[in-house]
Design a protein that fits this description.
The complex is a heterodimer of chains A (214) and B (568). Chain A is mostly helical and 214 residues long. Chain A is built from nine helices and no strands. Chain A has one domain. In chain B, helix 1 links the parallel strand 2 and strand 3. Classes of the chains: A mainly alpha (214), B alpha/beta (568).
Chain lengths: 214, 568
């Protein structure tokens, strides 16, 4: 599955004629350093802000990698160019407002703030208490949180959950097409077996139309 | 100008769970049937175990007619419209929502057919809630039993009988009405967690049993047995082990050569002649307008669409909508009170990652009139259902039981530890019809063709709120007995668009208070039939689909037997 994601990314980078800015492999790392990445729907600035946001919503920490490493920002960006296009405006306005809020209170872009400051700002947004953000702050926060969870825990074919980071985080034992009684016992958990649903031959034909801009 | 098509014996509007059943007895009787379906065909390979696609994207591969006409809800005639959701709870396709439903296939309780007379007999008429318009059904469970049986065998239902011919079998539902024979397949198996819940129920003196499901527990009709892999909630089955009408009754009807399936057909109105008889239906397909003449019209849409089509079909003979000169279309609307849920956190893993919502343990001790209501302040009750179904996104969106924030490292640690230690349940409570709960057309909101969408004016009343609290208490008791360490009670909510919507074209002998007669044919338009949960006069406390299918079969069988008098 990691191969697939990298292949996807390689393809995009090559198409953009920017092979030199090949992103680092998305192996699980306990770092919240945003990767240099080309975006489909978002501007580079918006993308960097979004990466910083998802990295705080589900952080990389001593328990393992988080939403950034899982590619949640990539998932959101791709979806905003496709099935979530209706939310593109909300992201444009919300990310800009977040950056304005960061610059006016911390003197720097949101992505450049310390994690503790980022958390404080996000708390303001969640509580609808971010000055200059307008009345939709909490709604924007909920939108990003919803999409971050989708990107972290959905099938990797949609661009997130890279290396099954999300599924491993919560102990999901993996997509199977046949589940025996033994795999439904309460005294013994199923062995982990991670695969994308679209890697099963029966579903591979549906991959393209399901995971790109319908 | 509409293209006029050759006349058919019967045009069926909607090939979902109910229309897809009703076409079978018609086609087998040799009638020339055309089924108009807004959606298209989806096949096994379209049903990928992909939670994001199924549960959050609303099946974008299916035709989105339903999503362009989502009903608008308000709590009362003086309330503002409630916020409108982005997805219709139902879908359009051949097989309709029977493709992605949970497939629980229950018969109603005997009491559900005779709420008025049984309440009066046992507790006195004063116990009927103020403002209810409930009537006894025009017949009892015994008269519908034959059709329940036919549908159970035609589509395939797994289950454990609890009452065969009056003989009680304690492995099944001891409260069910008598059935003529066992289910065609044994019940779906139980998981370790479900066994734990069943043991706890027995410890409370209750009667747990496996619920019935239109899912193959063994190979049936040359279709595979369930593989218990999950993704069944709003997901179709890649093995055709879930018995949607698209893989059961519709193909069988097609094999007779008497059913033509027309997909992508958006029906806009039923037409009538000068004498007030239905002449056929008008529909749009690919931007082209068609008129399909037929001797008999059967509406087989979902509750909201059956009502909307009648109200949209205005004519000189029916100025307020078809079959609505008595003003009953849209009345007696109900939805199941499925809110007021209970969430429970356990101190150990449940291994609930696989399985399906129809794989579970049921309690009917607190449903219908299965317990004494003499000292209670309500009538009716609820079915308690605990099942095996967990998907990763839903697991990550778990409640935090007051033990963690919504995001950040503390949230992440909590979810990592507890994603498989919690469960929800499904509590279906009986709902009654009331004078001021109804459907009509929205004055301003329309679909893309400019036709008004359905408007729901409805809210739960005291009887439903009291049932909800009572049933929630029983569920809390059950979870505690099974070892839960944290419990969250959810709110009841209100009566917005639902997968369990009833009424609006109620069935009954009295034309003053009902739209269709005891056979499902209009009191006003003799060659117009209506099938679906919209004809049901009570909700019961179990899933509606099997009952709506049994009623649909019965209406079709009646049409076959009385063709000349109905078709004219």
């Amino acid at each position: 599955m990691a191969d697939l994601s990298r292949r996807e990314m390689l393809k995009r980078v090559v198409v953009a004629g920017a092979a030199a800015s090949l992103p680092a492999p998305r192996t699980p790392v306990a770092s919240a350093q945003p990767a240099a990445e080309t975006f489909e729907a978002l501007t580079a600035e918006e993308g960097a802000t979004l990466q910083a946001v998802v990295a705080r919503l589900i952080p990389a920490d001593e328990r393992g990698p988080g939403a950034l490493e899982a590619g949640a920002a990539t998932y959101i960006d791709r979806a905003l160019a496709g099935p979530l296009a209706a939310s593109r405006g909300a992201y444009r306005e919300g990310l800009a407002a977040l950056d304005r809020h960061a610059r006016s209170t911390g003197g720097r872009a949101f992505a450049a703030l310390d994690p503790a400051d980022q958390d404080r700002l996000l708390g303001d947004v969640e509580a609808n208490a971010a000055p200059g953000f307008g009345p939709g702050a909490a709604g924007f926060f909920n939108l990003v949180l919803t999409h971050t969870i989708q990107g972290t825990f959905s099938d990797p074919a949609h661009g997130g959950n890279v290396d099954f980071i999300g599924w491993r985080m919560i102990g999901y034992p993996g997509v199977r097409t046949v589940v025996t009684p033994d795999l439904q016992r309460i005294d013994r958990m199923p062995p982990e077996r991670q695969v994308s649903a679209y890697d099963f031959p029966a579903f591979s034909a549906a991959r393209e139309r399901r995971t790109r801009g319908h | 100008m509409a293209i006029e098509l050759p006349k058919r014996d019967v045009v069926v509007v909607g090939l979902g769970a109910v229309g897809g059943v009703a076409v079978l007895p018609l086609a087998e009787a040799g009638m020339d049937v055309v089924g108009l379906e807004a959606g298209g065909w989806l096949r096994a390979r379209d049903h990928v175990p992909d939670e994001l696609f199924n549960n959050y994207r609303g099946w974008p591969e299916s035709v989105q007619k339903a999503n362009r006409e989502i009903p608008v809800h308000r709590r009362s005639a003086s309330s503002p419209d409630s916020p409108r959701g982005a997805l219709h709870p139902m879908m359009n396709a051949v097989g309709g929502t029977s493709l992605h439903y949970w497939a629980q296939s229950w018969r109603l309780s005997p009491w559900d057919f005779e709420v008025v007379s049984e309440t009066t007999r046992r507790y006195g008429a004063s116990r009927l809630p103020v403002g209810t318009t409930v009537e006894d059904w025009p017949f009892g469970l015994d008269e519908l039993e034959e059709y329940y049986d036919r549908v159970e065998y035609a589509i395939g239902v797994s289950g454990q009988a609890g009452n065969v011919g009056g003989e009680i079998d304690r492995r099944g539902n001891i409260f069910e009405g008598p059935r003529r024979r066992a289910y065609p397949m044994p019940p779906l198996r139980w998981t370790g967690f479900i066994e734990q819940m069943a043991d706890a129920a027995r410890g409370l003196g209750w009667h747990p049993f496996p619920g019935p499901a239109a899912v193959n527990s063994v190979r049936y009709q040359n279709r595979a047995a369930c593989a218990y892999h999950g993704f069944c909630d709003r997901g179709g089955c890649h093995l055709d082990a879930k018995n949607s009408t698209a893989v059961s009754t519709i193909p069988r009807a097609q094999e007779t050569g008497r059913l033509q399936v027309v997909t992508g057909a958006h029906v806009r109105s039923v037409e009538v002649d000068g004498e007030g008889r239905a002449t056929g239906v008008s529909y749009v397909q690919g931007g082209e307008e068609y008129f399909q003449p037929a001797a008999v019209v059967l509406l087989a849409g979902y509750t909201y669409e059956n009502v909307r089509l009648l109200l949209l079909s205005k004519s000189a003979a029916y100025p307020d909508g078809l079959a609505n000169n008595g003003g009953q279309v849209g009345r007696h609307y109900m939805t199941h009170a499925t809110g007021a849920g209970v969430l429970a956190l356990f101190p150990h893993r449940l291994n609930r990652w696989y399985g399906l919502p129809a794989q579970g343990v049921a309690i009917d001790d607190w449903a219908a009139d299965n317990f004494d209501h003499a000292d209670l302040d309500f009538i009716g009750g609820g079915n308690l259902w605990v099942y095996s179904d967990r998907r990763p996104i839903a697991a990550a969106r778990m409640p935090t039981f007051g033990r963690a924030p919504r995001w950040g490292s503390a949230w992440k640690a909590f979810v990592a530890d507890n994603a498989d230690r919690w469960t929800n349940c499904y509590l279906q409570k009986s709902t009654l019809p009331y004078e001021d709960n109804y459907l009509d057309l929205h004055p301003t909101v329309t679909d893309p063709l400019g036709d008004p969408v359905c408007r729901i004016t409805a809210d739960f009343k005291d009887n439903e709120r009291r049932i909800a609290t009572f049933v929630q208490d029983r569920m809390v008791e059950w979870f505690r007995a099974a070892g839960a360490v944290e419990i969250v009670r959810q709110g009841l909510g209100t009566m917005g668009p639902s997968t369990h919507a009833y009424g609006g074209t109620r069935m009954g002998d009295d034309p003053e208070t009902n739209v269709v007669d005891r056979w499902g044919f209009s009191h006003e338009v003799p060659n117009l039939g209506v099938v679906g949960a919209s004809v049901m006069g009570t909700s019961g406390s179990h899933n509606p689909t099997l009952t709506a299918q049994a009623l649909g079969w019965r209406t079709a069988a009646h049409l076959v037997e009385n063709w000349s008098s109905i078709a004219g």
